[in-house]
Design a protein that fits this description.
alpha/beta; 5-stranded parallel β-sheet; binds 5-O-phosphono-beta-D-ribofuranose
Length: 164
């Protein structure tokens, strides 16, 4: 990608989510997709959170990846104030194994979609963002095809090793 303007916004409810969320940043780096990272807590910074969501498309973002744990309202609240696709990442906390985060994010009311990945599925969130952007970027789509070919190769090799 030639642009250095962030196309993906990676946000989270707390810096304590970063150890999970950094996998999204890593994969976007691998795919050379420019991104930005910030903490935008739905509960502790509600006004900033709304401002972030409302201004995201005007700033050039195309996809938002939002991670949160516990009563994880950030992805859904962002989806309610932006027309951009929002990918939600349930972050597991000390109790309940992330099931609380998953259910908080995935059970959205009709009309306000959040593409929810698995608990701690930040890498897949990054890959999904790259696929969404790839629909308008043949070069990025080609990189995704190469990535899939490599995945296939690795899985095939694992099978060969087991059969040997
Ligand atoms: C959520 O509360 C955050 O997304 C985080 O997962 C959780 C705990 O935050 P801290 O107390 O660690 O800042 O809003």
């Amino acid at each position: 990608m030639s642009s250095t303007t962030p196309l993906v916004g990676i946000v989270m409810g707390s810096d304590s989510d970063w150890p999970v969320m950094e996998a999204a940043a890593q994969v976007l780096t691998e795919f050379e997709v420019p991104y930005e990272v910030d903490v935008v807590s739905a509960h502790r910074m509600p006004h900033e959170m709304v401002a972030y969501g409302e201004g995201a498309d005007a700033r050039g973002l195309k996809v938002i990846i939002a991670g949160a744990g516990g009563a994880a309202h950030l992805p859904g609240m962002l989806a309610s104030v932006t027309p951009l696709p929002v990918i939600g990442v349930p972050v597991p906390l000390k109790y309940l194994d992330g099931m609380d985060s998953l259910l908080s994010i995935v059970q959205m009311p009709a009309g306000v979609p959040v593409a929810t990945v698995s608990v701690a599925g930040a890498r897949n969130a990054g890959l999904l963002a790259a696929r969404i952007l790839g629909t308008g970027d043949p070069e990025l789509l080609g990189r995704m095809r190469d990535f899939q070919t490599e995945l296939n190769h690795q899985a095939t090799e694992k099978g060969k090793r087991l059969r040997a």
